Each structure stands twice: as C-alpha cells, then as structure tokens.
Amino acid sequence: VQEKSFIMIKPDGIHRGLIADIIKRFEAKGYKLVAIKVMVPSKDLASKHYEEHAQRPFYPGLVTFLSSGPVVAMVWEGKDVIKYGRKMIGATNPLASTPGTIRGDYGIDVGRNIIHGSDSVESAQREIALWFGAGELAEYDLAM
Ligand code: CMP
Fold first, then answer.
1. How far is 38 from 110, CA to CA, in rounded Å?
2. pTM of the entire structure?
3. Does the beta carbon of 86 lie inside 6 Å of ligand 1?
4. What pLDDT is recorded for position 144?
C-alpha cells in the first residue's frame, strides 16, 4: 500500500554524521521524500512524541535526550514504507538488529539508536501531524 511514514534522525545520528547516509538509503530504495526539517525539539514536543512510553522508567531520559540537540524530521512516502522502513532501520536495540540495517550498522546502545520510524499507520498519522503542518508536505510524482 502507498503510505507515509515519519522518520526522524535523532541527536546521536546527527552528531555521528549520518544524515546523508540515512537519506541515501531511503532514496536509493525508491521512497519519496515529501517533508524534511532540522530542529531542536522542545521538551513539550519530545514528550508528546513519546507519550506512549510515559509510564516507562526510561521516559524522562528519552525526552531529555531527544530535546538535547538537533533532529532531522522527515516524511517518506511509498509502497509499504512504514513496515519496510522499520526493516531498513532495524530492531530497537542496535545489538539485536541485523547488520545491513541502520541500527545494525551504526549503533550499540538502545538509548542511542540513531533513528526513529513510525510503527503503524495510526502512529505515522499521529506523528506526522505532530511534527509537520498540513502545508509542509509536498505532493509530486517521482519522474521515471
Ligand atoms: P524509538 O524507536 O524512537 O522508540 C522508543 C525509544 O525508546 C526507542 O527508540 C529507544 O531509543 C528508547 N528505548 C526503548 N527501550 C529503552 C530502554 N530500555 N532504555 C532506554 N531507552 C529505550
């Protein structure tokens, strides 16, 4: 199915210099970049983004970390991009993720796992609406 996913390079990914590599992977796969921005998220935005984890012991640290530096927030569009994008990203814990995935290639710590990707259609819609305004998503065809 044609769908959109919210994909975000977290502060550790920026500090590691992985922006171009990550964009290259999604672009090379055939996905379409329809929104992108760099920002330092407020604590409020970071809290809302991770609200489903509010009861977890790692939540305060997670929110502090996300709002500690710049992120690259993106929306990628294409066939099965939510599920396949998560396959490209790899398992949440980088040590459990397969080599060849983003986390498998570059990470070692679950709290510094480089990138976030929506895990369902519902969370993609919620996250896209949280991070972007309706007018910030481009509509276009990739010429073939
Ligand atoms: P993400 O896919 O962005 O979604 C939730 C995040 O919580 C996850 O990536 C991890 O960065 C973080 N996380 C999950 N489990 C733990 C944990 N046990 N300790 C610290 N951070 C965690």
1. 23
2. 0.96
3. no
4. 58
The 10s digit of each residue's pLDDT in 14-34 is: 999 999 999 999 999 999 999
- Which sign, positive or negative, has the C-alpha torsion 71, 73, 78, 82? positive
Quote the DSSP letter at residue 17: T
Q: Is the CB of 96 under 6 A from ligand 1?
A: no
Instruction: Give me the residues of the chain with pLDDT under 50, please.
Output: none
Centre of ligand 1 from the C-alpha of residue 116, in Å: 9
The answer to whether 132 is a known ligand-binding residue is no
Return the SS3 of 115: strand
Per DSSP, the three-state class of 41 is: coil
Q: Is 58 in the pocket of ligand 1 (CB under 6 A)?
A: yes
Catalytic residue positions, numbered: 116
> What's the chain's length in residues?
144
Separation of CA 50 and ligand 1 centre (Å): 9
Report the separation in Å between the CA atom of 102 and the middle of ligand 1, taken as the mean of its atom positions: 15
Instruction: Return the bridge partners of 101, or none.
Output: 99
Q: Which class for 68: exposed (0-12), middle (13-18), buried (19 or more C-beta within 10 A)?
A: middle
